[in-house]
Amino acid sequence: MDKDINKLLTAKSEQVKKLQEIVKKAIEEETLITNNLLNPPKEILTRGQTVSDKVAKFGGSWAFIISFFIILVVWVLFNTLTPVKDNFDPYPFILMNLILSCIAALQAPVIMMSQNRQEEKDRKRAENDYLINLKAELEIKALNQKTELLIQEQIQTLFESQEAQLKILKKLEQKL
Q1: Alpha-carbon distance 38 to 40, whole Å?
Q2: Tens-digit pLDDT profile for residues 69-92
Q3: Angle separating helix axes 47-59 and 94-175, nearest 10 degrees
Q4: Please, are residues 59 and 111 in contact by the beta-carbon 8 Å criterion?
């Protein structure tokens, strides 16, 4: 009888150990995912890429719009209110139009370079998200399979323990 009881207790402790190992592995894998997401690899930028990012950041800000508007207003006021001999760009403001065209012609491709790099980052982030979702799906399937395996093992153990209990009952019945 003692051997049968020890078998039952040993089987249960083995199941507990298996569950602990599964949980431990899952926790270790989860921390790896968390570390990779929290600490992405540092991107090495060239000087041109750094400049294009800064130009795009400033060119798309309210500070740029307000300062540019102030410069244009000062330019127009200076060239209309000062005496004609002091004007460096009289009324049709040809020099101002030339400068504005040059700024637009230079700023647009620089901003496009920065946007292309940002688009590549977004594409990599989306690919990363897809891989994480795929891994999560596979992990869920694996956990379901492990759960089914554990349930099958428990059912088997229950049948075995029930069989052992029946044997013990038969022995007790025979003794009585």
Answers
A1: 6
A2: 999 999 999 999 999 888 899 989
A3: 100
A4: yes
